[in-house]
Amino acid sequence: MKGLRVGITGSPATGKKTVGKALAVRLKVPFFNLNEVAAKAGFLIPAKGGEPKLDARGFSRVAGRHLPEGGFVISGVFLAEAIPSRFLDYVVVLRCNPLVLSERCDQRGYSQRKKKENLTAEFLDACLGGALEAFGDKVREVDTTGKDLRTVVKEARSALKEGKAAFGGVDWLALVKGPEDVFRFMV
């Protein structure tokens, strides 16, 4: 599996950087954070009173100049918008139960608005949908809920070895028991 070009994406707080770094070690390839690569290339735009925004469309036009030859792992929320499919062999979409994700957002000090946006995105499979649209059968889905890093990396490596698209095993709609649950997860 050496020399693979793997993208890791998912909602904020699903473990992209942590899993990406560990997977890169296992694959013996370098790890890159999409936002850091884009910042060095001048595609991270300062935002008033908030986090910088990635000019994903702009970066996608020059991505090949900023990615290494050979294998690598790169992680980022906006991977589907910023990295053209031809630069990746596989994409792993990390998923996490919105109830657990809610706690992680609180631990990170996210505002209620940002937290709800992230929960809504996870609940509605936004990152998975974007990845499938951009990368098609290169997509693999891994649920990180309640799993330690070693298990998640093992599952990701197994998904890469299988050679066929693997997604659809995660369904957060089953968490909805009534209208109050919709308001917990949705903006």
Provide structural commentary.
By secondary structure, the protein is of the alpha/beta class. The chain has a single domain (5-97, 127-169), classed as Rossmann fold (3-Layer(aba) Sandwich). It has 9 helices and 7 strands. The protein has helices at 16-27, 34-40, 56-66, 79-82, 98-107, 112-123, 126-135, 149-162, 179-185; strands at 5-10, 31-33, 44-45, 53-54, 72-75, 90-95, 139-143. Strands 2-5-1-6-7 form a 5-stranded parallel β-sheet, sandwiched between helices. A hairpin with a 7-residue loop joins strand 3 and strand 4. Helix 1 (16-27) packs across helix 8 (149-162) and helix 5 packs antiparallel against helix 6 (112-123). The termini are far apart.
Task: List key phrases describing it.
Rossmann fold; 187 residues; alpha/beta
Q: Give me the Rg, rounded.
A: 16 Å
Uncertain segments: none
Number of folding domains? 1
Strand order of the largest sheet: 2-5-1-6-7
CATH superfamily: P-loop containing nucleotide triphosphate hydrolases
Largest sheet properties: 5 strands, parallel
How large is the share of residues in beta strands?
5-15%
Percent range of helical residues:
40-55%
Give the rounded overall mean pLDDT: 87
What fold name stands as the CATH topology? Rossmann fold
What's the helix count? 9
What is the fold's blueprint, element by element?
Layout: E1 5-10, H1 16-27, E2 31-33, H2 34-40, E3 44-45, E4 53-54, H3 56-66, E5 72-75, H4 79-82, E6 90-95, H5 98-107, H6 112-123, H7 126-135, E7 139-143, H8 149-162, H9 179-185
Parallel strand pairs: 1-5, 1-6, 2-5, 6-7
Antiparallel strand pairs: 3-4
Helix pairs in contact: 1-8, 5-6
